[in-house]
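Annotators were shown the component list below and the corresponding predicted structure, then asked to write short factual statements about the assembly.
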Amino acid sequence: MRALLIVTAMVAAVAAAAPASAGPADTPGFTKAFSCSACHGGAGASRADAVPVLAGMPAWYFKKAIDDYASGRRPSPEMEPFSKMIRTLGVDDVAGYFAAQPRAASPVKLDGAAIGRGRTASSACASCHGADGRGDQAKGAPDLTGQPSGYLLNQMKLFKAEKRSPGDANLTAVKAVMKGIDDATLADLAAYYSSLGR
Amino acid sequence: MARMTRRQFLQASGVALAATSVAGCASGGGSPTATSTPADLAPNRKGRRVIVVGGGWGGATAAKYIRMQDPAIEVILLEPNTRFVSCPFSNLVLSGVRSIDTLTFGYDELRKRHGVKVMHEAATALEPDARRVRLARGFLTYDRLVVAPGIDFQTEQIDGLAEAGDRVLHAWKAGPQTVALAGQLKEMRDDGVFVMSIPPAAYRCPPGPYERACQVAWYLKTRKPRAKLIVLDANQNVISKPALFRAAWQAYPNLEYRASSKVVKVDPTAREVTTEFGDKVRYDVVNVIPPQRAAAIAVQADLVGIDKRWCEVNHVTYESVKAKDIHVVGDSTIGIPAPKSGTVANSMGKIAAIAVVNLLNGRPVPEMPPINTCYSWVSDSEAMAVVNAYRIENGKVVQIEQKLTPGQSALYAQHATAWATSIWADILA
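Structure shown to annotators:
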């Protein structure tokens, strides 16, 4: 509800501020990024459970993800072609566009009990992702807050099954941690980090 | 942002209707309905106006994105249906996995959030020379026109189809026919034969018929295990994701696929279809997906090529190669190496919107390629996908890469649902 109010307020503010000749979408990178909204939501504010929020994503992580998808290091039949396309369009422009968008937490509903259990279980994650879940570029750890819980859970399962970034030496330790956590607890962790920043 | 409710708009139009007396049109183009002098339904234009014909995946997207990029442009969207029903995911209505209500949306957000003037009326003709669109009760003028009328069926290509009326359903435009066909499937006798026919390419949604075959077969397998599905394909092979569909069909021994079996005749009294090689196939329930072309309004306005079926467009601006200031998007186009899919139509709508806004503002048009993602549901819980990425090279769309999912999975089904949630909002919210 809060997210909805924020979005509504944003729309109203943008509409009020827009001069007659320049639309709210007339911002750098908009044209290169607008294809993404078919899956990732308007301005990267994903409403869907299985697709990540791009709005407010730090540029360094967006570019890493695009590089990893395009090179096949992060296998995804859906994102690999689009990552190559983004490279032809200019990844800096697209990354800059999403980084400049207001952070928009996922609106997907969460279970309060799962959030509580996830908080308790989150100590293993905090050393890289931070006590606040906002990540750490120096460690290559992304901001998890406000991402859809379905997306977070799927990624942890892919890590666990060695299907995400297979063979990446930088991720050996984190995958070992995940392999020691049962799927139900991973779901709780996903709910907890999704709840942060809402 | 100037806003107008439909009532206000119609009131203004009504005033205009009474007050104006417009001399006959300059265009030689057909004016099929008016016998008296037509009236300008929205005179007193203060700024630039774009009319969008058709509120489907391409047209509604174009209308929204034009307003997002330049709220000074007045956008009138002409769409006879008051509700938007998604064709993607509608095969799941046949299997009972989804209800049609979950695929049905209104146009209110386009009005309220984006200031699009949505008129639920049909455009009856285009008059490019006069820059007018004709409606039953008058006309509207434009600076630029976006034509997104979708497809019509070439009913005449199948003997008996026109006469069959509602006894033979296509269910290829999601809506009442989808619900009716789902009902026929449910009512079919337990050892019945469901026959579906696939038209020759090109047609709307290349993987759609094969996804439908999966959904019907899944329904029969789980609800009527003695029943059978026969798929009669006019094409020589499955034309989209062939290996993936054939792998998926391993789960459906009740599905019999026959390639190169173009249906040329249907007899609803004998409950029988005939292929071009003379094979006769009896059915209990039939679903004939007829051959297709661009919708009639595009054909009548001569936006189609020599084949009289599809509209060729500029790959950067989506302007018709045959008519100035008219952009065509969606399933009625041809020539761009992208399938007639919902994602492509949505993509074309955005790119055409960029082009329209820049051209109306005297600015160069950026070169933006479309994208494509097509998810197909192979059961109640698993899906697969094909993805295409493109670039512009020398003013033409060329493919960078096509990728298929390695198989079907519940994860891809989650992605399919996410795609639908997002793209419906991208079009309408």
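Statements collected:
1. Chain A has two domains: 27-100, 112-195.
2. The mean pLDDT of chain A is 88.
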